[in-house]
Every structure is written in structure tokens, then in C-alpha cells.
Amino acid sequence: MSILVKGTDFGPTEQVTSTKLDNLVDAAKFTNTSEAAVSYTGSTGTCLQGGGLEVTSAGQLQVKDGEITTAKLNDNAVTTAKITDLNVTTAKIAADAITTAKIADDVELGGNPTTTTQTAGDNSTKIATTAYVDTAIAVGLSYSQLTLSSFATTTNSTNFYQDLTGFTINNQGVTLSESSGAISVPAGTYVVFFSVKDFTNPDAGGSSAVQNQMKVIRDGTTKMSSRFDGAEGQTFPGESMCNVFTGGVDFKFQVGQRNTSNAGRGTTATDIIVTFVKII
To answer: Closest Cα partner for 238 from 247, 248, 253, 228?
Structure first.
């Protein structure tokens, strides 16, 4: 505990002079109960040796750094009104100090908050970013379309089917490769569409009904086929087929002709489109 020790006193009957008053005031000093000397160095002085107060060079009394601890504060002494804006920074918040229990329900996040983009196909309660959604949509709608304006068989053999070749690939996320009629498809599950606008049997020399066919062959096995009949020399509508397949090493698409009474005389198919749509 510090006390103020005044200068030399004078008696009640002594004459009060300016010299005595100056001595009484100027000789006063702060000291502690143990009479330890007041520490003073340079332009600052310590009011109580080892204490937390300090006199600045401007004569201001202030608390030294590190001397205000939580034990020195009354309960509820620090209120939000005492904290200025921007003084609570992330550096002042301990790691993991903000828990879900401290966050109110139905929090509305303004601006453009961001978070980690989850792994594609993560079916959980994690927050999905716009990047995650865009990726999921892109995968779900990815496809490759093969187009061929026309194709003609030239053989006269009965039950003749020819692999379609010369496709133009319009790639939209599914990479296909076509070589000599064989189409390689990456692993995955696909909806496959195969359509031909119309067929023409150019040879009008015979009178038999012509049976045209479309086929989808995967890895050497016929998976889809469609047959439709018409007279020789006639142009008639084609067909559309679709099914679900897993990716195969070798897909082939065929058009052809089979006759019941005479050899096939060739057929022309126009506006041929093959589309692979990948399923997530």
C-alpha cells in the first residue's frame, strides 16, 4: 500500500512563508509502507516499486502492460459496449473456440461465403458448393453423338449386314473413338440411342419384299435389332432404338438387308445418329 509523505511540517504558531510552503509541497513523495525508495529512471517513474502504475514523461498516470489480468476484473465488467468495432479479430479467438453450440439456428450468411468443394458423388449432408453442383450436372448430361449423313450397302448377298463407318464425333463429355466401325466407350453406364431416318432399296428389278434391319452389337454380341419390310425400289421410314449398356471395348452399329426369296440388292440408310448419354 502506498502513502503520500509530505515535506517538513511547521508549527501552528510559525509564520507561513512562501519558502515553507514550497518545502512542504516540493518535498512530498510517494512511498510504500516499508519505506522502499520510489524507483525513477529517466523520464518515467514507478509510483510503487514492483507495482503496475507508471508515470509517463507527459505526467500521465497509466497502467503498465500486462498488469490487468482477468482476476483484476469484476464479473461482467467487460461488455460489448466497451469493445470497439474491429477489435475482435481471428487472432484473438482461440482455435476451435467457436463450436456449433455457440452458433444460432437458421444462420443467414450474407455476401458470397465459400467452402470446400466435396468429392463428386458424395451423397451426404455436407454443404454442396456451386462447383459441386455444376460438376454433377455436367457428368449427368455428358454425351457423345455420332452422326453419319448416309450409308449404302453394296453387296448382293442374302442376310448381309455392314458395320457403319465414317462417323463424325460430337463430344460433350464422353470420349468415344471410332475405327473401322468399332467404337470404344469408356467404363460407365450409358443410355444408347440408335436412329435411322429412312431406308431406300434402289434395285427395282425384283418383286420380293425387302427386309431391312438395324443392329447394335457390343463386344461381338447382338444386343438390339429391329426389322421392317418394304418393296424393292421403295423409300420408307427408318427406326429408332434405345437401351441401357455398360461401357464396352467394342460397340458396332449395323444396317443391312435380308430377303426371303432372293438375294439382297443393296440398301441405303440416311441421317444416321448414334448417341451415348452417360449416367452418373
So the answer is: 228
Does the pTM of the predicted model rise above 0.70?
no
The b-or-e profile of 132-148 (16+ CB within 10 A means b, else e) is beebeeebeebbbbbeb
What percentage of residues in the chain have a pLDDT greater than 90? 9
What is the separation of C-alpha 238 from the centre of its chain, rounded to a whole number of angstroms?
45
Q: Which set of grid coordinates corresponds to residue 168?
A: 463424325
- The amino acid occupying position 276 is F
Half-sphere exposure of 61 (CA within 13 A, CB side): 5
Which segments of 123-222 does DSSP mark as H helices, in order? Answer: 130-141
Q: Are 228 and 239 in contact (CB under 8 A)?
A: yes
Tens digits of per-residue pLDDT, 214-242?
899 988 889 988 877 777 777 878 889 99
Q: Where are the beta strands (DSSP E) in the chain?
A: 2-5, 29-32, 40-41, 44-45, 53-55, 61-63, 143-152, 160-163, 168-172, 177-179, 182-184, 189-200, 209-218, 221-231, 235-237, 240-246, 251-259, 268-279
Q: Which residues are 14's β-sheet partners?
A: none
Give pairs for 56-64: CB < 8 Å, separation 24+. Answer: none
